[in-house]
Amino acid sequence: MGGSMPRPDEPRPPVTEADVLAHLSRSRKPQSLREIAAALGLRHSARRALVKLARKMKKRGDIHEYPNGRLALPKEKQGTEYAPPQKGTPHRHGVQPQGKSATAVRPEVNQLTGRLVAHRDGYGFVVPDTPRKDLDGDLFIGRDALGDAMHGDQVLASIERRTRFSDGAGRAEGRILRVLDRAHATVVGLFRYGSRGNTVAPYESRLLQEIIIPPGDELTPELRVKMGAHPPRRGLRLPELDGAVVNVELTRFPRGGVAPAGRVIEILGRPGDFGVDVEILIRKHHLPHQFSEEVLAEAAAVAHPVGDAERVGRRDFRDLPIVTIDGETARDFDDAVYVKRLANGNWQLQVHIADVSHYVRRGSALDREARLRGTSVYFPNRAVPMLPEELSNGICSLNPREDRLVMSAIVELDANGEIVASEFARGVIRSAERMTYTAVNAVLQGDAAATAQYTHLAEDFRLMRDLAMILNARRARLGSIDFDLPAPVIEFDDAGKMTGIVRSERNIAHRLIEEFMLTANQAVARYLERRGLGSLHRVHEKPDPKKILEFEELAHTFGYTLGIENLSERLVAVKHGNIRAPQSRRGGQGRHGRSGGGRERPMTVAVPGALDIAIRPEHYQRLAEKIAGKPEERIVSYLMLRSLKQARYAADPLGHFALAFDQYTHFTSPIRRYPDLIVHRVLKWALEHPESRPVAPAAVHEGLKHPHGVAAKEVEPHGAALKKIEPRGLAPKDSATFGPYRRGELEAVADETSETERRAETAERELMAWKTAQFMEQHLGEEYDALVISVQKFGFFVELMEIFVEGIVPITRIEELTGEQVFYRERDHAIVSGSGGGHRSGSRDAASSRSGASPRTKSGRGARSSPRSDRGEHVWKLGDRIRVRAERIDPIRRRVEFSPLP
To answer: 526 exposed, middle or buried (CB, 10 Å; 0-12, 13-18, 19+)?
Structure first.
């Protein structure tokens, strides 16, 4: 493929490889340079640029030169007009879900299939579909080996070169052999008119080529109607299109060096217009955002008030003061709670969850749409719901003083918060009040006005608080990790203009809802597991040993450790990492008089001798308690979080490491999460088949059975709450499961919803970065106190103290301050200037590291500047407090750049 494409905010070069390839692909005979220049409208310096470009393209084999000097595409690359494949074709949602290729591919020994993750600089990595023991990480793909693949594509790749290590694994470089499935049927970008044709520059920086828009294909259906029967004359620039943000359907993917082509299907507005940023990210991440007429009609048909027919066979909870507790801006209420003390001294917790499965029938249009979306996506001033509003904000939402159908979990807990019995039922409730976290917290803090307003509920809230504290203490005994990291919250005025970015605040009301939902989820997971039912599980696996050691190395710089005993170490290579050999002792000069030592060698990290180290949640929990309230709490908590794996959905009960639960699922949010809807259906099936057991039943303690089969109660076996329950062995992929779902379907839904969850999180995080950049554009030149929260080879990231904004201090800005070259020093993860800096670890650094002595350098920690030591160094490390100035907004990454101040 050609070089990196120009970004929306960068000037376009006079001629690009895409221009040449596109012209040659349209030409019926070889072309001379003069003919190409004339066709592209090149003059003077642009023609000289074409000569240089053609020379480079001939050398790479992108174009062929005949003896008469004329140019053409190589024969194997001619005639490359391709339509989008059936998978991933655009429709009302933006793009269909991407699955496996329709053609089964059996890779050879030195081949693998996976997803390409491209980099804006032209190279990429293939993330294997199945991890390979002979590879350490992903397969590196150089810029000349990407072929016709685009970022996100499912590809078949060959392993071309390996670097093996003592454990048999190693890094590898490869080449894309074939694209199996395209990820992008549509691309959102900035439309540009040009003398050599119209193009769209993608907002996704990892899509490395502009999209060519052939004449006439820039017109949307609306513009065609406006233009009437007269096509636009050559050179006409429509104001609606010129510089507009557009969504393009690809009509030709890259092939043989020929750039992709497409047609404009939507005009979203102008860059910077209110709401356009959200529209861009919805389409960039292919978020389904429009409901079909069939789905809307189905939602309207089922969204009618609860009547006598719906209440038949359900347990009636309408006489209880059940309440919902949510944020001020929430519109969909899918959980309601009630707590009381029992005569035997135990607690009863009732968690009532909207019965979405009553309205969204399996296999219906609503169900297919919900599965496609996987989750609701929440932006600062807009939501993209999983279900139409008639359901999400209407009949499924537990609105106050309205009858609503629910799935109820009634859990009995002892004085220590242990579950002694649980009961599940199809129910009907009438929420007594729509409460907010702020209002409940005010009551619990003794606020006179709030207490007077909610006098009839005040005692219930106090009971909830007491039970929540007991449940939290129980989780602490189990070793549950409790990170309470703040999240950014954007504040808007009445006109929708951003006024600030603040840290989210959590109070006791947040805590009690969190504890109640965790308890309900765990109770449902235990019940379904003991019944032997196949279901979806929320799993969080143990952290990778390498991540643990990397964290330990960083934590040591703050004087902390996880305290894992008998942690023997060995060195293994870090994927894609290299460092130079130490300098020669003879004056630092290597061979041929060059400084800097010998060849690069693989970067290594110490890893436990036994790969399955005895890491437990308690190790993290104890460290979290040690750092609570200390200045370094934010940094160390962030590093701990980075060392953990991401939670996901699975068909097997693999446990939840962070929560220290052996069984866990998601049951409490079926309005906004598709896995919860699956769990509801499985639970309903269990209640409707109380006598059913799997052929090889799991150990089930017989409990009480409701006479109508609409409720089930189980009593926890003595000591079960403290006894570790080992998960069942993993079943074969094609095996059946006991219950309403086959294993294959559960695995497919687990994979899909884990992916849609990541997609939603990425889109939400990216929009927050965009909004932050927009906000900071108004504050460039201002100075702030900041905390160094991450150090990388290219600079360090800071978090401002006054406003909750993150940004980068690039290494170039640091060098402007110091007036000398600076380096990333790996042994203590610091940016260092002066004679002692550099990732080229000298003998003095290595010796001090081995001896445990600290070099005589001063850090910026706790200071307003970066002092120079007698060794002539400036040092910036994690946790340093520094003064910075907001300099610019990176137009590609949409992030804030800062300069350090003396």
So the answer is: buried
Q: How far apart are CA 194 and CA 215, in angstroms?
A: 11
Strands (E) in 675-770, as ranges, are 704-705, 711-715
Signed CA dihedral, 885, 888, 892, 894: sign only = positive
Beta-carbon count within 10 A of 132 CB: 15
**Helices (DSSP H) in 166-288: which residue ranges?**
221-227, 276-284
Nearest to 667 by CA among 517, 802, 817, 853: 517
- Measured on CA atoms in the order 501, 503, 509, 514, is the torsion positive or negative? positive
Check residue 683 and give its pLDDT: 98
Based on the number of CB atoms within 10 Å of its own CB, is 720 exposed (0-12), middle (13-18) or buried (19 or more)? middle
744, amino acid identity: G
How far does the chain reach from its first CA to its final CA, in angstroms?
44
Tell me the CB-side half-sphere exposure of residue 98, using CA atoms within 13 A.
23
Average pLDDT over residues 4-28: 64
Cβ neighbors of 569 (< 8 A, separation 6 or more) are 549, 606, 607, 608, 609
CA separation (Å) from 533 to 371, 420, 676, 736? 21, 21, 15, 11
Q: How far is residue 91 from each of residues 87, 249, 289, 643, 864, measured CA to CA in Å?
A: 11, 10, 11, 39, 55
Backbone angles phi, psi at 51, to 5 degrees: -60, -45
Residue 516 scores a pLDDT above 80: yes
| Both tokens assigned to 519 | 């308890």
Chain segment 71-90, per-residue pLDDT in tens? 888 765 544 433 333 333 34
Parallel, antiparallel, or unpaired for β 186-192 and 198-202?
A: antiparallel
Taking CA atoms, 713 is separated from 11, 526, 850, in Å, by 68, 12, 61
Residue 859 has pLDDT above 60, yes or no: no
Tell which residue, 50, 59, 60, 58, has the closest CA to residue 20. Answer: 50
Count Cβ neighbours within 10 Å for each residue of 448-474 and write b for 16 or more, e otherwise: eebbeebeebbebbebbbebbebbbeb
Higher-pLDDT residue of 425 and 569 is 425
Q: Is 766 exposed, middle or buried (0-12, 13-18, 19+ CB in 10 A)?
A: middle
The pTM is what?
Answer: 0.79
Please report how the helices 508-530 and 437-444 are oriented relative to each other, as an axis angle in degrees rounded to 10: 110
Q: Is residue 690 within 8 Å of residue 769, measured between CB atoms? A: no
Give me the DSSP letters along 143-158: GGG-TT--TT-EEEEE
Q: Are 632 and 556 spatial neighbours (Cβ–Cβ below 8 Å)?
A: no
Q: What is the pLDDT of residue 672?
A: 97
Cα distance between residue 214 and residue 252, in whole Å: 11
CB 299 within 8 A of CB 363: no
pLDDT in tens, 21-62: 777 876 768 888 888 888 887 877 788 888 888 888 888 777
Mean pLDDT for 840-856 is 34
What is the C-alpha separation between 857 and 864, in angstroms, rounded? 16
DSSP strand pairing (806-810 vs 895-900): parallel
Burial of 136 (0-12, 13-18, 19+ CB in 10 A): buried
> Could you give the angle at the alpha carbon of 849 between the alpha carbons of 843 and 853, nearest 5°?
110
The structure tokens 């005993």 sit at 565
What pLDDT score does 806 carry? Answer: 93
Dump pLDDT digits (tens) for 105-132: 556 778 999 999 999 889 999 999 888 8
Using DSSP, state whether 354 is helix, strand or coil: strand
DSSP state of 853: P
pLDDT, position 393: 95
Q: What are the tens digits of pLDDT across the range 556-573? A: 888 899 998 766 554 455
**By the 8 A CB rule, do 537 and 525 touch?**
yes
